[in-house]
Amino acid sequence: MSTDTRAPNQETRGAIELTLAMVLSGTLGVFVIESGASPFNVVFFRCLFGTVTLGLYCLVRGFFKNHGFTARKLGLAALGGVFIVFNWAFLFESYERTSISVATVVYHTQPFYVMLLGALIFRDRLTAAKFGWLGVAFVGLVLVAGVSASDLTGGGDGAYLAGLGYALLAAVFYAVSTLITKRVTGVRPHLVALVQLVLGIFLLLPFTTLSQTRHLGADWGWLIGLGVIHTCVMYVLMYSSYQKLPTPKIAVLAFVYPAVAMLMDWAVYGHRVSLLQALGIPLIVAASLGINLGWTFRGRAAKQAAASSAATTSTATATAGATTAAAAAGETAEPKIEIKSGGTR
């Protein structure tokens, strides 16, 4: 019997919220490019306007009461913020040197770095299936990157290669932030994100050229939008949806983000991926879903054998299981969704 107590209407609402959040994520690149500001300036003002709006939201909702922070948790949130802020800067730099489509798809290889870093740092177990999906993702990444032999020997576009490097570096920084921030427990993710935004203001100030913003004019609207829409509104929708959805649905809906990003890149800038690059996209999608949902490469026969074995074991332990279940009948377990990062896209 399932222990998932989410009401169907709550799950539907969560799906709508997460879909809207991912659609907003997909328009992020257009706001960054249209602002005309340098990547570090963009991130600085995203942090500034995001701090104001998300801070007001937290104040109105009363999140500052019983916030749950300790010195250790605050330090971890801040450390994760260092990586998330520079992750944004590297991603935005990649937009300018490659395209929104290529940068977004390459950036979406984050789950694999989370897996690898988790194995290296925290000794998380890597199964054969995970290694297999990692290989699938690598093939997809090579295809999406569209790098030729001439690019690697210095005869290609150096700026494009640098852009790919920035996208990969952004993905790695995001993975590091995820591993750090997921250890901040008992604190609302909105507050974790707010700490990271506040930190970003002071962290990026030395890299920000404020004199370049004097002639932005109407383009200020794009920067304000990044703080209000792509930070405050997007985070509120995303964090609300996580509590209403099962993990598999979250993993699937996350791919609305790159799909919308590619659509916007084509609609606004006329950028299209080549056929070879397009072949790599489903490989990365499949590999990411395989990692997140625990898919294996076992055939149907192996699955049937496993099911038969499980049925036999279940029959043999039915009496003992019934006794245990009866003892625990009065307890209910509320399902929780782990939020891996305080500040995501």
Automatic annotation (TrEMBL):
The answer to whether the entry has keyword Transmembrane helix is yes
UniProtKB keywords? Membrane, Transmembrane, Transmembrane helix
Q: One GO term of the cellular component aspect?
A: membrane
**Topology within the bilayer:** Multi-pass membrane protein
* Domain spans labelled EamA: 14-144, 163-292
Q: Which domain of life is it from?
A: Bacteria
Where, by residue number, does the polypeptide cross the bilayer?
15-37, 43-64, 76-92, 98-122, 131-152, 158-179, 191-208, 220-238, 250-269, 275-295
Q: Where in the cell is it found?
A: Membrane
Q: Which SUPFAM superfamilies does this UniProt record tie to the protein?
A: Multidrug resistance efflux transporter EmrE (SSF103481)
Family to which the UniProt record says this protein belongs:
Belongs to the EamA transporter family.
Q: What is this protein called?
A: Multidrug DMT transporter permease
Task: Please spell out the taxonomic lineage of the organism that makes this protein.
Answer: Bacteria, Bacillati, Actinomycetota, Actinomycetes, Kitasatosporales
